[in-house]
Please model this.
Amino acid sequence: MKNRVEVHDLSAWFDEQQVLFDINVAIEDKCVTAIIGPSGCGKSTFIRCVNRLHETVPGARMSGRVLLDKDDIYAQVVDPVAIRKRIGMVFQRPNPFPTMSIFDNVAAGLKLNGFRRSAELQEIVQRSLEQAALWDQVKDRLGEAGASLSGGQQQRLCIARALAVEPEILLMDEPCSALDPAATQRVEDLLVELQNNYAIVIVTHNMQQAARVSKYTGFFLNGGLIEFDDTSRIFTNPQDKRTEDYITGRFG
Amino acid sequence: MNPYNRRRLVSRIMLGLCAASVVVVVVPLLLIIGYLIYQGISSVNLALFTQMPKPVGESGGGMANAIAGSLLLLGLASGFGMVVGVMTGIYLAEFGDNKFGFIVRFLSETLNSTPSIIIGIFAYTIIVAPMRHFSALAGGFALGVIMVPIIARTTEDMIRLVPTSLREASLALGVNKWRTIFRVVLRTASPGILTGIMLALARAAGETAPLLFTALGSRFWSLSVSEPISSLPVQIYTYAISPYEDWHRQAWAGALILIGIVVLIGLAARFLAARSSLVRGARRR
Model:
């Protein structure tokens, strides 16, 4: 299978504190890659380096290379804004825009960038909401505030919003950690659907979730990538003692 | 005395002191408004709003020119104060975490506490003196300078209240920083910013000293920005120090109208603040 993203020797810092150490990994197309590890191990920073969001934090910097289809996204000539259009992101807490309706939330990525053709917008919004399995619940109230939805619905709204700009890669930073089990189930079902069209990276605290949805799993500890392998091997026959300790619940 | 009774006693004393402070704050305001109504209400009539001042010696007439003048001055002032104030606030909130930002913040606070008569002299020096005559433009500018630091401060505070998660949501969609600031952050903060603008406007509406040097005052109808113009505070001042009984009555009525305008602006600010989820969230915290 084709690799969409390749990460070479990625290190990252917040001011003087190094939080990622020489990460090397490849993300395959049309499947889910899970990133697991204890809190503060650098999982979120890792995916935020992949869409160049890390650098927007004051004092943050990185070194190494991140290749998207063989092109270095940190090359001098590359506009980070263009990269973020190609690599979408869903955050830990649902963060719909509070001043916008459901419709405008989904259309935000396009409208904020000056897209005005309303017939096309209608189609894109409907398609994105359908992809996020939310259309049937909101189709009669697209004008209501995005914040009026329940937590699980808000998170699917945010997924629809990310899909509306038609990214090629989807990064998800613990997308279910603020959701109840039923809403989590729905988001996981969604991942299974979406992986037919996207390369998906999901950061998760929940090892069962990683085991359920992903094809590959990477285990992070203290800013390093300890082990990366087929999900089934990570959970049944890990090569590193620390991975085994973590997945058997001995720490973290 | 056992500890429980002691605690209860201290609690009651403190509560009593708080209540007394509330009375000290509220009573003077109520007295002012009450006395204004008592003195002014009998002279408030339609003529006050629609008629021009009569020549000295004739009774009656109104303050139509002063009311219109005040509105024009406030319009000019907000035009200047809003643009400069909001832009300054955006700068301070988004790019102001450095030495220059610190200096700007300090100067802005100093400007806020500068006596308004000095701001009047400033406007006189840079607008009235070169133009060689008093003008509404100079008055509007002076009031605008008074509004800038108030608006800059509230804009900065309100923008800082917008959660990072919203900026990141926008950035992650491939929206650039400027669009994120103007179309997501500013829009989310706008009810709070509008509240700040209203408060600045209420402050500017009552300023008299800077207008004496700039807009001067006039007994004639004018909506020209390059001519001297009448305003409520200056008109009240002129009438109050005059020897005529009829003018005194009109000064009271004018003062009542002025405080009415200020209360209305304040109510509008409250209304906007109540609609702002961010301000509400900030209070809860």
Remarks:
- Residues 20 and 102 of chain B are 38 Å apart (CA to CA).
- Chain B has one domain: 63-284.
- Residues 278-285 of chain B have pLDDT under 50 and may be disordered.
- Chain B touches chain A through 22 residues (CB under 8 Å).
